[in-house]
Each structure stands twice: as C-alpha cells, then as structure tokens.
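Much of the work behind modern protein science is quiet bookkeeping, done one molecule at a time. The fold becomes a row of whole numbers, each drawn from a learned catalogue of backbone shapes. The protein below has been through that process, and both of its lines are reproduced in full.
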Amino acid sequence: MEPLGQDEIRASFVNCTRGEAKGVTLPAQLPELPWDRREFLGWRDPKAPARAYLVLPYGGEVIGLALRAAEPPKSRLRSNICGFCTTTHGLADITLFSGRRAGKAGREGNTLGIYACGNLACSQYVRGELKSDVPQPYESLTVEERAARLEEKLHKFVARVLETR
C-alpha cells in the first residue's frame, strides 16, 4: 500500500458524510507506518471504540469505510475466524463490524457486516508479525498468497458496500 496523508484519508470515505469524515480521529503514527507491509489501513477510534475505519486501494483509487463495532457476543463459542485474514481468535478478539452501504442504500439504513480481527491488524497476522492466542490450522500458503487472499476478501467487502442494487 502507498503512504497516505490525512487529507487523502478523510476524502476517501464513501459511506459517511463529509462532516463525519472530517471528525474521524486518525491514527497518530501515520508517517511511521510500514506501508509496504499493509494491504489496508485499519484502526479503532481511541475516543470512541465502537467506531472503526478501513482505508485501502480499490479500483485505482483510495476507498475509506466507516464501520461500527458490535458489542461482544454472549455466546458459548470459544473461537471464531476473521473474515478478512482467516486468523482464528478467541471470541473476545473477534468483532462484528458493520458499515452503511454507500449512496442511497446507506442513507436508507442498509448495512453490511463482517467478523474480523478486533484490532484490524490483519496484515500483521498474515505476515506473522502478530500471533493469535488460539492455535491456528495448518496452511501451506506462502505469506504472499495469504496477503493476496486478504486483499481479495477486502475488495469483495468493498464491492458489496459500493453495490447500488
């Protein structure tokens, strides 16, 4: 991923108003991020932990999504799998993120959701920079193949948010 500036990030959001995008709390460490080892920029708002954001290259442009994090489920499940990077986590480390669809559908209240790493550090899990506390199933994919799969899943999610049906 290419480095992004604050203005570029704020202008990228497709499923919130300009005013909402202007109020987004951006990550403090933007200049120091290892952009070449990230498929997307994802973060939780430190001032409002129920808010989360994804910004990624998509179709020759930069697309940003504003998301909401659901309350942790009250379930007997012991673990779950991230819908982006397929890392298995304990239930407390997986979050249901939902985002309004872009355009008219979003203004009418239509949303999409995905279970993902609660810290949105999928790129780091794919590369082994972070490890889950839960044992992982064996995978024969290379890091590059896992990163490509992550990008594919991210792009499918963005495509669904952008659908105009």
Remarks:
- Strands lie at 41-45, 48-58, 61-69, 79-81, 88-90, 94-100, 111-117.
- Helices lie at 6-11, 18-22, 103-107, 122-126, 143-162.
- The longest strand covers residues 48-58.
- Residues 7 and 22 are 9 Å apart (CA to CA).
